[in-house]
Amino acid sequence: MSGCFSFRMSTKEINRFVAELPEGxxxxxxxxxxxxxxxxxxxxxxxxxxxxxxxxPGSLSAFTHFLKDSTLxxxxxxxxxxxxGFGQSNFGRSVKSLKKQSxxxxxxxxxxxxxxxxxxxxxxxxxxxxxxxMDFPNLVDGIIMVAPSIxxxxxxxxxxxxxxxxxxxxxxxxxxxxxxxDEIYFLKEELEEMLPLWKNINIPVSVIxxxxxxxxxxxxxxxxxxxxxxxEPRMILIPEMNxxxxxxxxxxxxxxxxxxxxxxxxxxxxxxx
Length: 273
Fold this sequence. Notes:
By secondary structure, the protein is of the alpha/beta class. It has helices at about 10-20, 65, 70-75, 100-110, 125-135, 160-165, 165-170, 175-185, 185-195, 220-225, 245-250, 250-265, 265-270, and strands spanning about 25-30, 35-40, 50-55, 75-80, 115-120, 140-145, 205-210, 235-240.
């Protein structure tokens, strides 16, 4: 059962994917705070870096199809990463705090600080990239939030979350589901902690949201527009679209990536101190 709900590629599948990329790629990791953070990167130096961050549950495989895109590879270095507790990044060992997850991802920002860095986050990856922009303003140049869970008032009060967090159910749940529940159970208070920090985001922001999203209320997009007072977010609202944008409408994400790279490349090239 655990294998069926892992939401990740095996090491063999990852190695095969990396080998099949036309211009090659690196499947690598770095160590921080007694953890290993795994990622795949492809592309050249001296171009903007685009970092993809998946939702919950999930893994770096959520964005591997973007690494195959020849247009994106020509214009950017592309990185997809396993968030803490998912994929090959200490699978099953959850990190409930978005601030802590942000800190664990800081080295990959620092490793690419010589060029503009654009973050793409889907679902729970949305508030995480917002948190990274809040915590490390000199290391992030643009963010693209895709169906993001960011408004604490819109977080559902699901009766089963405390039950799944109890010791018995935590023991029997598949690891990916357990880590996901750990994150979602504490997400409301994590989002509340971020409320006074939204005004610190003054970089280009895109928000992509579907009107038929049954997992993340579409009103989260309204929250983004209200809270981002120091920048004018680009709002891409598609009435007929659901939650699974990276797979159903990848062209929307690609278009926003290219907008951040091309149309606003000069504002992105600020000095990193």
